[in-house]
Amino acid sequence: MNNNTTLRLPYAPAALEALEARLALRMTARLTETTADLAPDVTERLRFAREQALQRARAARKVTSAEPVLTMGSSAALGGGESGLGWWVQLAALIPLVALVGGLILIQQMHNDSQIAAAAEIDASLLADDLPPSAYSDPGFVEFLKAPRD
């Protein structure tokens, strides 16, 4: 015995919608026929439940119709419908990435230059000062370098 629960219908989506609409009409007609035998409070609760269900259905339709449809093609997803403009759109998408990488490289180069300039300034001040060579090996030399200059 096969327990396959997959339902395969040979209908097109439009035909399925038509079948669903006919089924809904039949169900509502049958429910309307049997409401005459119900108590008034039950009828009122059913009416209220129907109104809520209709509001939810309308809201669901608005949400699904408002969602944009994206296809697998890169030009459609990026907004370019014509095939001739597709590579221009991709090139334009790469421009911010190139600018970002260029900016990062420029920042790194400027940082390196400032470190080199600071080291050159320290070397120049050490070489131009009147310190004896033994002062460089002194443990208090770091404090000397940190001291403010006159």
Structure explained in plain terms:
By secondary structure, the chain is mainly α. It has two domains: 11-68; 83-150, no CATH class. Helices cover 68% and strands 0% of the residues. It starts with 12 loop residues before the first helix and ends with a helix.
Descriptive terms for the model:
elongated; 0% strand; 150 residues; 5 helices; mainly alpha
What does this entry show, briefly?
The chain is an all-alpha fold and 150 residues long. It has 5 helices and no strands.
Please outline the major beta sheet. Answer: none
Number of domains: 2
**How large is the count of helical segments?**
5
pLDDT < 50 runs, ≥5 residues: 74-78
Radius of gyration over C-alpha positions, nearest whole angstrom: 39 Å
Mean pLDDT: 79
How far apart lie the N and C ends? Answer: 99 Å
Structural class: mainly alpha
Helix content: 55-70%
Strand percentage lies at: under 5%
Order of helices and strands: HHHHH
State the shape.
elongated
Tally of DSSP β-strands: 0
Task: Write the topology of this structure.
Elements: H1 13-34, H2 40-66, H3 74-77, H4 86-128, H5 141-146
